[in-house]
UniProtKB/TrEMBL annotation:
The lineage of its organism: Bacteria, Pseudomonadati, Pseudomonadota, Alphaproteobacteria, Rhodobacterales. In the central section; belongs to the CRISPR-associated helicase Cas3 family. In the N-terminal section; belongs to the CRISPR-associated nuclease Cas3-HD family. One of its GO terms (biological process) is defense response to virus. The keyword Nuclease applies. NCBIfam families: cas3_core, cas3_HD. It comes from Rhodobacter maris. One of its GO terms (molecular function) is ATP binding. SMART domains: DEXDc, HELICc. This is CRISPR-associated Cas3 family helicase.
Length: 834
């Protein structure tokens, strides 16, 4: 039987032929040639890798795969695992044609075989020899009569790429490539399998001629998929006068090879624009052919997407741009980009193919998303290597890196930078409050170290550090005085007085329950305070965010007497400007971030135009000099006392009590190191147990991270995995539950979110709200088997019905006993006591 007789896929219809496996393999190889071309690989190695990608589906030339296409139940090794078996079976011949050490070739065999998002798990090389031989024999039995044709395919394909050679590689290089090659192969396979471009064809063309045809088709396919790539273009990015850090980024010497830059400056200093200026120069220098912005939350990613859409078209020529997080489809800005509404010829765009999956989002020229999407490149989850491949061509920009200082995610970030550097990638990290110890760990991933404790600073791993900046000519707010407030009642009094004077005010609480209680206290005093936290349905949160931005954003209007009560969502997700701020005591980094929203836009609202004389951060805190026991914080902050490590919070109170002010930027390093540095003051004896427990939790988190992360030294076959994304979290924390809110209507239950432009799927997604599982599980949530709920969820996929609870909301807001929902208040647990 000839290799022409083995189908690669079932016929699409009765009138169409089955596409031969060899044709499909050449379709994918032709796509891979386009995708691999921009990478700096010598021609013999590039040809060898394309040849191996061409052989990715060799296992389809097997009796078991033919039987499966005919309707037989799948049994034994899958076709992609048989690919590895057949490559091993023909290793002697491949060694003659490709060269290279056997261990080196085996790494790459497993890499192309594992293109379905997971490495092969047949025990080739892992068992004692008798068991290994037995399993190999069973696998070859599944190949059956395909063994000889498969060997013929290898011979024929080697002739198509006669210059292919692995001789330039050593085992270390092959191990590194083993993490990258499966992603290239998977991407090429997705495009090469798409019948929009590669239609089924009878085997009437010789392989050489069909490959020439496939190369022509692939040119169109790659372009239409949005993978054609872009080029950096020279020219200025901004038309405003540059601030000191931004100016420094225009002149920083760029080292040879992959580089990591750390930009440290105060909140509001223009770090994002500085990073874009530096990334533009790096792209022009050949250090990346795209960008990925990694943000701490979906809200910050959405905000960055709106900003980046205005500027990336100046960096690259007509780049593709995607939003990469689980709710990207709910972003109106992203939907408009995909639809092409009001897009100019040279503006960023996004193809339907890229928008179909957040995994594909990392393949666009420019991606904006959460850090989680990038971190999954170093966790043993399905299609981890696809994310790694997508990032490898990009300059990785990690914004708000101080938000990622928790032990588990910090360890993930280290591994991500290590993997990115190994693939030749460069990176920029931005921070306002990064402790020196964490900065050292990040710089070490690129073989560097910090050379100066100065702040602000622009540091390149293994290269120069800039810490001497020109004075910023723009108006500055000056030092922020820190004043302690002892009780919530006193805080409410102060807000009432300040609002009466026309000040725009904010009260930042550590917990949602305490924020709700503070708003109720303000309402009782006649102050119509707004509320913003993470326990709103997404539609209401987006609405409230827009209303708050319109009032106290950079160009907000009607701000006099406005009062907002919020939680940590105010620290980084919104560009807000307040005249008066009260905050719960929190770690120093959080307080510095919060204070960055105080007197923020001095050009728009100079000091003389403010209704208060000076910026003051009022901190709701007990006296740090009086600590009787470990309940020191609870009486003042209630539930907000349990959010952060007590030792960090106490040190923050102590440091700010002594300093009396936050002086940015020059005084920030000393404050951060006084809390987190090696010379930090010991906590009072009453808090030592709490600190010991916190240190233990941090150590456990680091250990868990090391256990969860892929081991780069083992290579993809032994170090990769295929777990669901949920099995290996990108962040630690207690489990949450998602509720989907519904309204009662005459025709049954309808999504809480309303809008004529929303599809049913979008409306239901915008109606979701999450809370801690432990609190929700203690309540009698609505029975999901009631006729109304069954009717409303009938068309939902099984996984969605299993993961979420549909919750009708009564006219008075009741969901069940102990739980209600309000459009202006969010999800409220009734009967909550501090």
């Amino acid at each position: 039987m000839s290799f022409w007789d083995w189908p690669g896929k079932s016929p699409v219809g009765d009138e169409l032929p089955a596409h031969p496996a060899v044709y499909h393999m050449l379709d994918v190889a032709a796509v891979a040639e386009h995708l691999i071309e921009p990478f700096a690989l010598v021609p013999p190695l590039r040809a060898a890798l394309v040849l191996l990608v061409a052989l990715h589906d060799l296992g389809k030339i097997s009796d078991s795969f033919r039987a499966m296409l005919a309707g037989a139940p799948a049994q034994g090794p899958r076709h992609w695992e048989l690919t590895e078996v057949l490559l091993h079976q023909n290793d002697a011949h491949l060694a003659e044609r490709l060269g290279g050490d056997p261990d080196l070739r085996w790494q790459l065999y497993a890499a192309v075989a594992g293109h379905h998002g997971r490495p092969p798990d047949l025990a080739i090389g892992a068992l004692p020899k008798p068991a290994r031989v037995r399993e190999f024999g069973l696998a070859m039995h599944r190949v059956g009569s395909g063994a000889a044709p498969a060997a013929e395919v290898i011979e024929a394909f080697c002739d198509l790429w006669p210059g292919a050679s692995l001789d330039v590689l050593d085992l270390v290089d092959a191990t590194r490539l083993s993490w990258w090659l499966p992603g290239l192969c998977a991407c090429a396979d997705w495009v090469g399998s798409n019948t929009r471009w590669f239609t089924a064809q009878t085997p009437d063309l010789p392989l050489f001629d069909y490959l020439a045809q496939a190369r022509q088709v692939s040119t169109v396919a790659v372009a239409e998929a949005g993978l054609g790539g872009t080029v950096a273009q020279p020219g200025p990015l901004f038309d405003f006068a540059l601030r000191p850090m931004q100016a420094a980024c225009t002149a920083l010497p760029l080292p040879d090879g992959p580089m990591l830059a750390v930009i440290e400056d105060e909140t509001g200093a223009g770090k994002t624009e500085a990073a874009l200026i530096l990334a533009h120069r790096m792209a022009l220098a050949g250090k990346g052919r795209g960008l990925y912005f990694a943000l701490p939350t979906m809200a910050t990613a959405d905000a960055m997407f709106r900003r980046s859409a205005q500027i990336v078209g100046r960096i690259f020529a007509a780049p593709t741009l995607t939003l990469a997080h689980g709710r990207a489809g709910l972003s109106a800005d992203f939907r408009d980009l995909v639809s092409g509404d009001a897009r100019g010829e040279d503006d960023p765009s996004c193809t339907d193919w890229l928008a179909e999956s957040r995994r594909r989002a990392l393949l666009a020229d420019v991606g904006v998303g959460t850090i989680d999407q990038a971190l999954m490149a170093v966790l043993p989850v399905k299609h981890q290597t696809l994310r790694h491949f997508g990032l490898s061509s990009k300059i990785l920009i990690v914004d708000e890196v101080h938000e990622m200082g928790e032990a588990y995610i910090a360890k993930e970030l280290e591994r991500l930078l290590q993997m990115h550097r190994a693939a030749g990638g460069s990176a920029i990290v931005l921070t306002a409050t990064l402790p020196l110890a964490l900065r050292e760990k990040l710089l070490a991933t690129y073989g560097g170290k910090g050379v100066s404790p100065a702040y602000p600073a622009l540091t390149v791993a293994g290269g120069p550090a800039v810490s001497d900046f020109a004075a910023d000519p723009r108006p500055v707010k000056g030092p922020v005085t820190v004043a302690r407030i002892e009780t919530v009642a006193a805080a409410v009094d102060h807000l009432v007085t300040a609002a009466g004077q026309g000040a725009a005010c904010v009260f930042v609480r550590n917990s949602v329950d305490e924020a709700i209680a503070a708003r109720e206290a303000l309402l009782a005093r006649g102050i119509p305070a707004r509320l913003l936290h993470a326990r709103f349905a997404l539609c209401d949160r987006k609405r409230i965010e827009a209303e708050v931005l319109a009032t106290v954003g950079k160009t907000g209007q009607g701000r006099a007497g406005f009062v907002l009560v919020g939680t940590q969502v105010l620290e980084s997700s919104l560009d807000l400007d307040f005249d008066v701020m009260i905050s719960d005591l929190a770690p120093i980094a959080a307080l510095i971030q919060r204070a960055g929203r105080l007197w923020r836009h001095m050009e728009e609202r100079p000091a003389a135009a403010r209704p208060v004389a000076a910026p003051v951060l009022h901190v709701l805190s007990p006296d740090p000099a009086v600590v009787a026991d470990d309940r020191w914080l609870r009486g003042t902050l209630g539930r907000g006392a349990f959010v952060y490590d007590l030792a960090d919070v106490w040190r923050t109170a102590r440091v700010l009590s002594a300093a009396g002010r936050i002086e940015a930027p020059q005084g920030l390093r000393a404050l951060i190191e006084a809390v987190h540095g090696e010379a930090a003051e010991p906590v009072p004896e009453a808090l030592t147990r709490a600190e010991t427990e916190a240190l233990g939790k941090a150590a456990a988190a680091r250990t868990q991270a090391v256990h969860n992360l892929v081991d780069l030294s083992r290579g993809y076959r032994d170090g990769g995995g295929a777990s669901p994304d949920t099995s290996y979290p990108t962040r630690l924390g207690g489990p949450t539950r998602t509720l989907v809110l519904a309204r009662h209507t005459a025709s049954g239950l309808a999504p809480w979110a309303e809008g004529a432009d929303l599809s049913p799927a979008e409306a239901w997604a915008l109606s979701e709200v999450s809370a801690r599982a432990a609190r929700l599980d203690a309540l009698p949530l609505p029975d999901q088997t009631t006729p109304q709920i069954v009717a409303a969820t009938r068309d939902w996929p099984d996984w969605r019905r299993a993961e979420v609870r549909l919750c009708p909301v009564a006219d008075d807001g009741t969901i069940c006993k102990g739980l209600r929902y309000d459009r202006e208040c969010g999800l409220v647990f009734e009967g909550v006591t501090s």
